[in-house]
Amino acid sequence: MNWDDVRIFLAVARTGQILAASKRLGLNHATLSRRLTSLEEALKTRLFIRRTNGCELTAEGEVFLASAERMETEMLAAQASLGHTDTAIAGTVRVGAPDGFGVSFLAPRMGRLIERHPELKIQLVPVPRSFSLSLREADIAITLERPDQGRLVSSKLTDYTLGLYASRDYLALQGAPADIDALKAHRRIGYVEDLIFTASLNFSGAVMRSWDAGFEISTAIGQTEAVRSGAGIGILHDYIARQYPELQRILPEVSIRRAYWTTYHETARDLLRVRSVADFLQELVSAERHIFL
């Protein structure tokens, strides 16, 4: 198998278009298309569905993509060991993160990484659920607990704290609770209980036995917005709530501590682009660790 043909395959897979890939590689459009067909013939399988608006990987193409990226990593490592410095960090890295961390912290900062590595494409998927790293639903997952099963590489990213918050307008109308017991007389905002997929999201259990929220929202950002609107009292991430001067911390003796973990599959350990993103995440958090505690 010709390595140059594999490079062509990777370029088409990443750009989604033969024309865009030919420009990236500096090849004639017809030549690139011919060599891609030659690769498919050598593999005896169809790698792309060619459409008028671009190319889409087939199921076989998706399988070959993983192998091709491993080949690319090995080639880059070989170049580096021989003293070459043109080991570009390129390709797509999908980061799955809890919505609060992904939207409030990562999204405003990930542009710095793209500036550093223009050939890198980041997909940030802020959804409140767990990921299957083995099925490539994400290359890197920010998890709320350290995984104890599977062939995963995991390290603590940071601890973070949560507290009780209400809007200043709400407190002006309803008054501030003097203690935990007084919370029962106030409107409370929390997670949709049957959608809590990990014990680490059960924040209310650390405050009172029955939170019994009148307004349940399945995302941290949604709960923050509800509290900001004056809908009630909520348990919010401190690093998010502190961004809004209209929010006031109440009952400061109530403090809940949790952690974020960076996790990826061990087969991605040697992928330069994945390691670079994981290192960048740690760099970001280390520089601003004070906001999380």
UniProtKB/TrEMBL annotation:
It comes from Rhizobium ruizarguesonis. Residues 1-58 form the HTH lysR-type domain. This is LysR family transcriptional regulator. One of its GO terms (biological process) is DNA-templated transcription. InterPro entries: LysR-type_TF_proteobact-type (IPR058163), LysR_HTH_N (IPR000847), LysR_subst-bd (IPR005119), WH-like_DNA-bd_sf (IPR036388), WH_DNA-bd_sf (IPR036390). Belongs to the LysR transcriptional regulatory family. PANTHER family: HTH-TYPE TRANSCRIPTIONAL REGULATOR, TRANSCRIPTIONAL REGULATORY PROTEIN. One of its GO terms (molecular function) is DNA-binding transcription factor activity. Keywords: DNA-binding, Transcription, Transcription regulation.
